[in-house]
Amino acid sequence: MIPFVEVEGVAAPILQSNIDTDQITPGHTGMKVQKSGFGAGLFFNWRYLADGSPNPDFILNQAAYQGASFIVSGANFGCGSSREFAVWALRDFGIRAVLAPSFGAIFTANCYTNGLLPITLPEPDIAAIGASVTAASARLTVSLQDCRVSAPDGRVYPFKVPALQRERLLEGLDPIDHTRKRENLITAFQEKDAALRPWIYWH
Amino acid sequence: MNPTVNSRTLFDKIWDNHLVADMGDGAFLMHIDRHFLNEVSGAVSLKELDRRERRVRNPELTFGTLDHVLETVPGRGMTTRMPGGNDFLSEFVKRIVPHNIRFFDINDPRQGIVHVIAPELGIALPGVTFISGDSHTCTVGAVGAFAFGVGSSDSEHALVTQTLVQTKPKTMRANLNGAVSKGIYAKDIILALIGKYGAAGGTGYAVEFAGETVRSMSMAGRLTLCNMAVEFGGRTGMVAPDDITFSFLEGREFSPKGQSWRDALAFWRMLPSDAGAKFDTEIELDCASLSPQVTWGTSPEHVIGITDMVPDPALTQNAVARASQERALAYGGIKPGQPLEGLEVSGAFIGSCTNSRIDDLRAAADVLRGHKVSASVLSICVPGSTAVKRQAEAEGLDRVFLDAGFQWRESGCSLCMSGATGGESFAANSRVIASTNRNFEDRQGPHVRSHLASPATVAASAIAGHIVDVRTFVRST
User: Fold this and answer.
1) How many Å apart are CA A140 and CA A10, to the nearest integer?
2) What is the pLDDT, as a whole number, of residue B6?
3) What tens digit of pLDDT does each residue of B202-238 get?
């Protein structure tokens, strides 16, 4: 996982609500038994016209938003399918954080395991940030160190990230290795629980 | 002892029973009792686990089956038309077997959609934590479990450690009251609830469905309610276990037996929310006044009763929500103020983890009996499990579907989702009525307009050739 400390980059506003993971990575865009290499399929049905050429109306195809690091979106971003391909596609495309009023729960969990930062901000803040990232000036700075978003108009928005997720993102820690350090606690739990709920455990 | 201080919700009790370690700032390492793998997310998690030379910590608590990629056409084999799908099938089978995980493969009579077979086999039990690499895992919260979907990386985490890190969601109780009228099903109730409170109405919550309507509902109906908890934004959906739950689970293959069953039963009877338990939020729905629900747009929250008119986005205050509604109307070729009744459909699909259980097939068959589907409607029924299919055939329901002009398929996720399941799509630009859970853009094929409804409404609309009020059929049959 690439650590996330502070990132400065272009933000693309896609101000729709309920952008689901089927839109982020449509099923037909080449799912593979692997965890990377999905950037080309990101927002495939929105990014490309039926003839395969880029859709000039879609924001990620516009000159001002090339190389975007952030997406600013409406409520419930990443709802729908649990497909982690959606997070891999965003990450592989170069997106480091998504800013929205709310997120799908599974998408949020998938973001954290892959170093993508989901930033939850109130709707008025999202509307203000969305309005501030114009074609003329679309760069934001997101600091996970300070938990702050700095917009082009000079406004600063504080956000919250759970401490454990923040620590893992800042240091790029592998969650599985982190949990395995508590193996003795897992064994102790199962021994105690097997006395309380023996029907859970069979051999 | 102050009873209100110690009163806990069903969710609180399950949460408290599974805490392995406090990870700080509200995060806890939580034990996972049951983990079910499918061939999409499971293939990726097992491949990564093998690459890192990690081992499955508790294979006896882990299960696997094929549902997503596997085709559902009669005579199917271990190949699929889904691009890249054969790799998922072959990688998954190759990797799951050496880990000694119980695996219900293509020829196993226990094969089926994870969320259909987990309760059917007694793998999902009251009070358990249950995960699977599919968002509709919340379905099995209907037995009184904390069940939720995960991505491949979290699935790998659980394979290696039998735990996941979770922050505690808030609790919400959805009080569903009133006796539903004929032609109204659990699907109509959950669609109406999502319509009333929005697709993010349950975001941040574990949602317990309660109230007299739920108490008298069959397990199939409860599974349908909880299935769409994720479409409501909920971390999970759940129903307190009761005698309906226990009689459903007793004698199932992986349910406890004998003294173990009696011990479990005593424990399970303590699980329902205490009388004084406090929920962070309570919401209501009057089910007695519901008409059959059908979606008009591209989110499950875009839903109206069959006798209602499509809303005008101009009346929506929030600019982002308004833009989304306008986009949905344009996608669907729908105008504000029009009814959905009468809209021609060219596809009808009965199946998916939402509505593919034996009760669903019986309800649809009751509508279809003695009728033929319109010649212009491609009509497909896909039972949710091989066991459901065999049960339906034993009851002669397959003949009802076939005689009416429906295709009768093998079990799997099928046309619920094009591209990533079953290798099939509905025709580009077609309008489809489906008993599934997602009406997202392109979900069932390129620019396919999907309308979600109950299996009975789907069956009635297939006969009529257009979206119809199923109550006219229920009354006449």
Assistant:
1) 6
2) 83
3) 999 999 999 999 999 999 999 999 999 999 999 999 9
| B160/A35 touch (CB, cutoff 8 Å), yes or no | no
Write out residues 43-62 of B within 8 Å (CB-CB) of A.
Answer: 43-44, 47-48, 54, 57, 60-61
Contact B357, B248 (CB under 8 A): no
Q: Among A53, A36, A127, which Cα is nearest to A87's?
A: A36
- 3-class secondary-structure state, position B458: helix
This prediction has a pTM of 0.97
For residue A125, the surrounding DSSP H or E stretch is helix A123-132
Residue spans of beta strands (DSSP E) within A70-188: 70-73, 97-100, 117-120, 139-143, 148-150, 156-158
Alpha carbon of B281: minimum distance to chain A alpha carbons (Å) = 18
- Checking if the pLDDT of A63 tops 60, the result is yes
- B129-132/B102-104 β-pairing: unpaired
Instruction: Kindly write down the DSSP assignment for every residue of A26-41, as one continuous string.
Output: -TTTT--SSSS--GGG
Q: What is the pLDDT of residues B392-409, one digit of tens each?
A: 999 999 999 999 999 999
Cβ contacts of residue A7 below 8 Å, gap of 6+?
Answer: A69, A70, A96, A97, A141, A142
**Mean pLDDT for chain B?**
96
Q: Quick check: A45 contacting B, CB < 8 Å?
A: yes
CB contact set of A8 (below 8 Å; sequence gap of 6+): A69, A139, A140, A141, A142
> Distance between CA atoms of B47 and A80, rounded to whole angstroms?
24
* Dihedral sign from CA coordinates of B51, B162, B235, B204: negative
Cα B32 versus chain centre, distance:
20
Segment 91-110 of chain A within 8 Å of chain B by CB? 102-106, 109-110
Whether the pLDDT of residue B423 is over 90: the answer is no
| Shortest CA distance from A34: residue in chain B | B44
Which residues of chain A does B27 touch, with a Cβ-Cβ cutoff of 8 Å? 162-165
Say how far apart CA B85 and CA B412 lie, in whole Å. Answer: 14
